[in-house]
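Hi R.,

Here's the chain you asked about this morning:
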Amino acid sequence: MLRHLSKTGWIVTCLILFTFSTSCSSSQTDDDLPAQIQRVENGLLTYHAVTGEPAHTIEDRMRYYNVPGVSVAVIENGELLWARGWGETEAGSGVAVDSETLFQAASISKPVASAGALRLVEKGYLNLDEDVNGLLQSWKVPENGFTLTEKVTLRRLLSHSAGTNVHGFPGYAEGEAVPSVIELLSGEEPSNTEAVQVHSTPGSGWRYSGGGTTIMQLLMADVTGRSFEEIMQKEVLEPIGMIHSTFSQPLTEEFGAEAATGHLGDGTPLEGRYHTYPEQAAAGLWTTPSDLAHFAIDIQNAYKGAEGHTLSPEMARTMMATEAGSWGLGFSIDSVDGRDFRFSHGGSNAGFKAYFTMMANQGLGAVIMTNGDQGTDLGMEILRAIAHEYDLPGYEPIVRTAITLEEKQLSSYTGRYYVTGQDGSLQFMMELRIEDNTLLADVPSVGWQGKELRAESESTHFFIDNRGELTFQHNEEGEVISVAITNLGPPLILEPRR
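And here is the predicted structure, written out as tokens:
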């Protein structure tokens, strides 16, 4: 029933998008694998799928987002179905991305590290509900008013409900001093983030915290007397067969030759190729989509009751149970149609963006890794194409209808729009311009260049690659006097400077 309902949604989308409907099909046919892959790479769908407009090719969208390389793995029926790469490991290098190219997993490191911590729970080193300060030896969570009655526990660290601060980490560029884990947690030089502390009562709510994950990293090392890297190698990576993966930070020469280079939003390579992340558990995994697929398959098999995997079936089910909001012990947990659920996680490091998703019962999923700062939106477009081809629910595009405006009307929106402070200082700027009869937006402060817009009406325009909208206000003479950016956070009102 779930597959039928999901497919119905895709059929409706295909009927609306008439230029895409000629390729609407499913992996349920007898088509061979190359044909399926070709439909995916030619079937990318934007956040807003515009009626009458075709799907995109992966090469076109890589250029649009200035992402030089991408690697993908698809899982079906609990097995790795296919994996391949597109583009270059570094822009202009001529070195092709393949299924063995390493990318930074960024925050996808967290669920992999969580599996390592749960493995230590099963071995008796750790307890999910014990105050971690009773086990930490080289550093302690600073006590304060929030920890008087409720304590930081491993369960709360894994589910982001320990009340700890520090959302994420920028990493350390080549040549910068790299702090120890204790310096990181203490906020001491050369750490580039604040000290990790408890900022709300543990267990009182969900608050994403890479700082909390770093406490877990130290905890695992303290209770075993081994380095975090060694623990993860022996307890998770080797048993699963993740032979192209490492938590080594900085990256060792052994793996460096296979590693992709990170890129800024404009496609420029990061200086030094990539940043170093001593916050290994939170952001330090180097891996491939195929290896992450094997990880997801291993956890899913254990969840379904199979023995002989990294975690026991009981622990895998504990990992998948929601603890805070929609969060389990390391994964985001989301119900799909009330009949199945997916476990997933995204990743965002400097120059790298990644995402993986897996249906817990169906064994259907995908992993996408990119070496560009605009890789998140690209990855979601690829995921929509995969979702269409393999009937993966929950990733359908939003279908919108656009109108065609006369050139004079379209030109009236062009120009620069500003938010200024009370002292007249520039706070924010957006420039609208026309190219090939299409309205484009440039926002230098967030790395946007050439973001395409479509007109739903004369006053309302929407971005095709994200949920954002522009609402224009006109005076009696028809001149634009302001534009509001909505659906991307609090509304932002900009005015033209004529």
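One quick note: The two ends are 58 Å apart (CA to CA).

Cheers,
M.
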